[in-house]
Automatic annotation (TrEMBL):
Gene3D superfamilies named among the record's database cross-references: P-loop containing nucleotide triphosphate hydrolases (3.40.50.300)
Organism, as annotated: Pseudanabaena frigida
Domain Endonuclease GajA/Old nuclease/RecF-like AAA residues, every copy: 10-355
Protein name: Uncharacterized protein
Pfam families: AAA_15, OLD-like_TOPRIM
Domain OLD protein-like TOPRIM intervals: 401-469
Length: 587
């Protein structure tokens, strides 16, 4: 049965129910580069194994099927088709029940539109070839004398009369260039070389040309055909046919049909490194050295794949960054990104935050495991716009996917205060606590940003700290987040800065001066701060801006510096109630 797919095969999605921790699991892949992250045993390797089951025929063993389930279903979607493999647990073994191809609804619509077109010319050779191919795809009998219009109507009828999915049984996954590497192969140079450089040649060598008109496959089939004719001729010449006619009186001839099915050649490889003619024992080298060598070979493969005649490839890389130091991990990212840019597809699992932060948020899939079931988080809606927004806010992928809590603020003072006070209070950086403070100023796509945050984090992990002078944009963001009231923390009379008592503002800024080995100007005093605060309350002037006038003769006061001074030097009993409540949630 001949299936029609696009010339460049890309894996669009995977659906699994019943493979280890993958239960009712679905993941969509980026057509260029997908980075899959998660803790140990979150399901990363299981995901790669499921892809291999459908695309490579990896065997399924009883332990692969989820405990408590007796059936496993794995579906891989490519352009035009979904390939579905189903297995049952039977006693202590596993039996494959079916391997089907399901044309997508979009593909069926395209076929219907083309074949139902009144302008279709069934005498056109290209249209005839298309109709014959489609008929074979849907399991219709196609002979040399088949009526083309009858085939066309039969195809349309088969599509229109379907109930549910149109299933093509007993299928095979189309051949495609793919390279599958895990951490072990990155340390075994010979295995690595075979997978990267020889695997596709094992399949494609049959199409190499002996001359302008003949491939190796053509040559072999021609020789086999000649051999079968020779045998048939000898059966008659040597009188064997006459002996057979004793039992088969009407026998006139015996035709020998030899079936030739080209299979991948078994090509092995041993990579030998020489120093002045003497072999270097690579096995005695460290894992890091071996991985640097395989990285160099992968870099060479990248350059080789840029040759226009080279076919596109799907790379399945399972934790290739193990034992690589940071620079080598970045080199790995650059290499796989170059593959993706050249038209290849890369699906890579990793633990590395450096690799994770090197790609677009829309290319990251986070796996987590709870009660033995794997779940997935990713940006689903308008990922391109969200990616641009997050990067403009300085939000790394590790923050976006792994943060334990997220705090949204709108001012530089509070942003600096929270980070500095967390360090002073816990003796740990706020990032080590997996807490991300995001200054919401400049968010352009407020609905999209809010949706992205809530897609990747439960609403219970998000807090908003804002003052009475909050912008309309921040109020719109609060509305879209729709958080419980206790997570929307309003502070200050008008601004964050006026929530602090004058003696606290005075002392913390003086402490900052002392750290710098200087003294504040005489104008920086408690009474002046108190009077200014009172004036701003009645006049409506910005206290945060006016406060700088009391320090005009001293060291420059910026909002981040003031926030740092307050966060570092404030005492616990001096902290405004709202901020103390926030830190109760954080700590």
């Amino acid at each position: 049965m001949k299936l029609i797919w696009s010339d460049v095969l890309k894996i669009k999605s995977l659906r699994v129910d019943g493979f280890r921790s993958l239960v009712d699991f679905y993941i969509a892949f980026d057509e260029n580069l997908t980075i899959i992250v998660g803790e140990n045993d979150s399901g990363k390797t299981s995901l790669i194994d499921c892809l291999k089951v459908v695309t490579q025929g990896r065997s399924v063993i009883p332990d692969d099927i989820t405990f408590g389930k007796d059936q496993l279903s794995i579906s891989v979607e490519i352009e035009n088709f979904v390939f579905r493999r189903i297995y049952n647990r039977i006693n202590s073994g596993v039996k494959e029940i079916s391997f089907d191809a399901l044309p997508t609804e979009a593909f069926l619509s395209v076929i219907q539109e083309r074949l139902g077109n009144n302008q279709l010319d069934v005498n056109d050779q290209e249209e005839q070839n298309y109709i014959r191919d489609m008929a074979r795809t849907f399991g219709l009998a196609v002979r040399s004398n088949s009526n083309i219009d009858t085939l066309r109507r039969s195809i349309i009828e088969k599509i229109e009369n379907r109930t549910g999915d149109l299933v093509i049984p007993n299928t095979t996954f189309p051949r495609f260039n793919n390279i599958q590497l895990d951490g072990r192969q990155f340390e075994n140079i010979s295995d690595f070389f075979k997978e990267v450089f020889l695997k596709e040649k094992q399949a494609n060598i049959w199409q190499e040309r002996i001359d302008k008109d003949t491939t190796i496959e053509d040559f072999v089939k021609s020789r086999i055909h000649g051999y079968s004719n020779e045998i048939s001729q000898q059966l008659e010449e040597l009188g064997i046919l006459d002996k057979m006619r004793i039992f088969l009186r009407d026998l006139t001839d015996v035709k020998i049909e030899l079936m030739c099915q080209p299979k991948n050649l078994n090509i092995d490889a041993k990579v030998i490194f020489l120093e002045n003619g003497n072999e270097i024992n690579i096995d005695n080298k460290g894992d890091g050295t071996k991985r640097r060598i395989t990285m160099a070979l992968l870099e060479f493969k990248k350059e080789q794949s840029l040759v226009l005649s080279d076919d596109k490839t799907v790379y399945l890389l399972d934790e290739p960054d193990t034992h690589l130091h940071v620079k080598s991990q970045i080199d790995l990212v650059n290499t796989v990104e170059a593959f993706a840019l050249s038209g290849d597809q890369v699906i890579l699992t990793t633990h590395s935050p450096f690799i994770m932060n090197s790609v677009k948020p829309s290319q990251v899939r986070l796996l987590s495991r709870y009660r033995n079931n794997t779940s997935i988080k990713s940006l689903k809606e308008n990922p391109s716009a969200i990616t641009q927004s997050l990067r403009s806010l300085g939000v790394e992928n590790t923050h976006l996917f792994f943060s334990r809590q997220i705090i949204l603020v709108e001012g530089e003072t509070e942003e600096s205060f929270i980070s500095s006070h967390y360090l002073a209070r816990t003796q740990r950086t706020i990032s080590s606590g997996l807490i991300k403070v995001i200054n919401a100023q400049g968010i352009q796509n407020i609905p999209g940003f809010a949706k992205a945050i809530l897609e990747l984090h439960g609403s219970e992990k998000v807090y908003v700290l804002y003052d009475n002078d909050a912008s309309e944009d921040l109020l719109a963001l609060i509305s879209h987040l729709n958080l419980p009231d206790y997570q929307n923390l309003q502070i200050g009379y008008r601004e964050f800065e006026d929530a602090f008592d004058a003696p606290v503002l005075h002392r913390c800024w003086v402490e900052y001066y002392r750290e710098c080995g200087r003294n504040p100007p005489p104008s920086w005093c408690v009474d002046a701060i108190e009077n200014l605060k009172s004036h701003c309350t009645t006049s409506g002037d910005k206290f945060s801006q006016s406060l700088k006038s009391l320090n005009s003769e001293g060291k420059k006061m910026t909002k981040p510096l003031l926030g740092h001074a307050l966060g570092t030097h404030i005492k616990l009993d001096e902290i405004p109630t709202v901020i103390d409540k926030l830190f109760t949630y954080l700590c």
